[in-house]
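Work Package 3 (structural annotation) set out to generate three-dimensional models for the target panel prioritized at the project kickoff. During this period the team completed the workflow that converts sequence records into discrete structure tokens, so that structures can be stored uniformly alongside our sequence database. As a representative example, we reproduce one entry of 201 residues exactly as it appears in the project archive.
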Amino acid sequence: MTEPGRRERKKAANRQALADAAVNLFLERGYDAVGVREIAEAADVSVATLFKHFPDGKEALVFDQDADREAALVAAVRERPTGHSIPRALRGLLHDERSRQARNDPRFADFHQLIDTTPVLREHFRRMWLRHENALAAAIAADTGLPENDPAAQALAHFALEAVSLVHGRDDPDAALDRIFALLEVGWTATAQASTRHDRT
């Protein structure tokens, strides 16, 4: 009964070691100057093991928490406390995530600069964020009883996620995030009320 648990822990440890080694090397020497063999050696695993954990290639090593982040966004909508609006729940999640990263990782600013200055990472980040947007929009529509692909749900998902980029580099990113979500809150409340009135007619 304990063997599967050990296997899973070993897999998770290897994945984390690879991601940590990759980011360390990328920050030290630049993304284009580092090969997958060097990353595997730094993590003390084989290249085959690297691709087993990250089949999408080298850029995926930078975004190793991709699936966890998408799950957290969907959960923020589905599992929010009674009385909390969707914008409020998303603001809380993104605020907490950003604060945790900035507090726990002294290389937080350097990490974002790496993405900003590396075209292949910027493109991977854009594709990843689009997948998150679609999953979040579907969760919003399902939670509120709106039709699938509803433009209001898609817009809320889009601008909630875009807030992460809009606050990056500002003197007070937390205050900026609050202002963005105050606007989204007003717009979403008005849209939800209009949808309710329409349903009653």
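The CA atoms of residues 72 and 201 lie 36 Å apart.
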